[in-house]
Q: What sequence folds into this?
């Protein structure tokens, strides 16, 4: 889960479903009408097969490979390439290789992202596009019904049938709070501090978390939801957290901000637990091992160390790690590369189901018939009949804690890494039974 959002308003048409209504925004005005969400491309749109030949299917990627945001957005492509290479090594799909033919860099600039969008669709004629950018805007992807996959950092992936953010296109806010409360209880923490950027998704997530914790009787002693998303100075906040007596910090910042937080926490000698929603990356843990001891991560996929701790229990994770080591060495421990792998798996699943009539619209329709997609046993099942409009990951999460040079799964029962909660249970919650299909020892 990411906590970033765009710092600018995008005056384009987007769609979401709220309380059974289709709500559309254009130029700042909202219109709500009862409707059944459409899971297909508009009539006459997406009927072609650009980038498809007898021997290959060409895919494009747009991500931030350079500039100050590259550390947070630049590692999607290695996971995509590894999955495609694995599939191609076994003959591709009906003899067609799935090729990541275009790897575009937006350099962390909104204007360049817009240019790359038109390059990928209009000039390169890519069949589908994978995206990892702070500046993703959906309008042209939706208008062309281009199958679009990737990393959701803003919540603007929801509502369109062709936008597939990894794990579901609707960001979860309220439904993660029981898991947060459970961790607070398990660490015997008494006072909570909350930090977020002054951009929508980051501040909304942490504001919701703070409000629900207060309503449930938890003591929230310090809140700052107005930190700048780039080059934030966290020292004043850490000093205030120390004066407030907080012993638990919830951070809705990026990994860059979280590392800066950990550095200041150590410098000022705070004895606090930290929960990060972004940063569950073994490369980060190894690089900043001395700063991150005891930090907790909230993750939505099977933690990578589970493959070593529980051999044979999570075979999908073992396939991922083996393929990454072969095809994209150096990125197996990267959390964003895992999102790339999951995105590539969904691309291939849709192509396989639509292969007898391979058009963009057919892939969109076929993908939206997948009701229990787990990317081969890596994540909680995603129902793409509803995941464009409702939060798929309603109440399940996995926790990792940094211990030594690794982040290891904690708090699960036995070899189970996931915890699930009743979404309304915030006051001292207890784990609920795990749902069918979720990766774990019950499936082996």
A:
């Amino acid at each position: 889960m990411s906590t970033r959002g765009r710092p600018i308003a995008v005056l384009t048409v987007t769609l979401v479903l709220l309380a059974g209504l289709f709500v559309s925004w254009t130029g700042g005005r909202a219109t709500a009408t009862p409707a059944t969400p459409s899971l297909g491309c508009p009539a006459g749109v997406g009927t072609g097969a650009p980038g498809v030949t007898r021997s290959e299917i060409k895919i494009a990627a747009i991500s931030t490979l350079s500039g100050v945001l590259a550390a947070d957005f630049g590692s999607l492509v290695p996971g995509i390439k590894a999955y495609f290479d694995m599939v191609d090594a076994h003959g591709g799909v009906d003899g067609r290789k799935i090729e990541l033919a275009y790897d575009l860099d937006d350099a962390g600039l909104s204007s360049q992202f817009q240019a790359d969008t038109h390059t990928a669709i209009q000039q390169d004629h890519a069949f589908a596009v994978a995206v990892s950018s702070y500046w993703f805007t959906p309008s042209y992807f939706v208008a062309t019904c281009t199958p679009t996959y990737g990393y959701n950092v803003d919540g603007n992936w929801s509502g369109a049938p062709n936008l597939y953010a990894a794990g579901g296109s609707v960001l979860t806010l309220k439904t993660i709070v029981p898991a947060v409360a459970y961790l607070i209880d398990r660490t015997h923490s008494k006072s909570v501090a909350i930090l977020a950027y002054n951009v929508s998704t980051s501040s909304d997530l942490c504001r919701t978390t703070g409000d629900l914790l207060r309503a449930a009787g938890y003591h929230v002693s310090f809140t700052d939801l107005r930190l700048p998303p780039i080059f934030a100075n966290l020292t004043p906040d850490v000093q205030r957290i120390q004066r407030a007596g907080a012993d638990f910090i919830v951070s809705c910042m990026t990994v860059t901000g979280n590392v800066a937080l950990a550095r200041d926490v150590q410098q000022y000698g705070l004895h606090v637990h930290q929960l990060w929603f972004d940063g569950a990356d073994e490369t980060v843990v190894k690089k900043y091992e001395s700063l991150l001891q005891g930090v907790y991560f909230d993750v939505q996929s099977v933690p990578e160390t589970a493959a070593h701790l529980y051999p044979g229990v999570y075979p999908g994770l073992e396939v991922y790690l083996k393929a990454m080591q072969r095809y994209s060495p150096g990125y197996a421990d990267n959390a964003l590369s895992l999102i790339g792998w999951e995105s590539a798996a969904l691309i291939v699943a849709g192509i396989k189901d639509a292969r007898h009539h391979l058009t963009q619209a057919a892939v969109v329709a076929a993908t939206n018939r997948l009701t229990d997609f787990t990317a081969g046993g890596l994540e909680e099942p995603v129902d793409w009949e509803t995941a464009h409009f409702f939060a798929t990951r309603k109440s399940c999460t996995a926790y990792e804690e940094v211990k030594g040079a690794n982040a290891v799964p904690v708090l699960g029962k036995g070899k189970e890494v996931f915890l699930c909660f009743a979404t309304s249970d915030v006051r001292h919650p207890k784990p609920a039974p795990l749902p069918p299909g979720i990766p774990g020892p019950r499936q082996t």
Q: What stands out?
A: The mean pLDDT is 87. The radius of gyration is 21 Å.
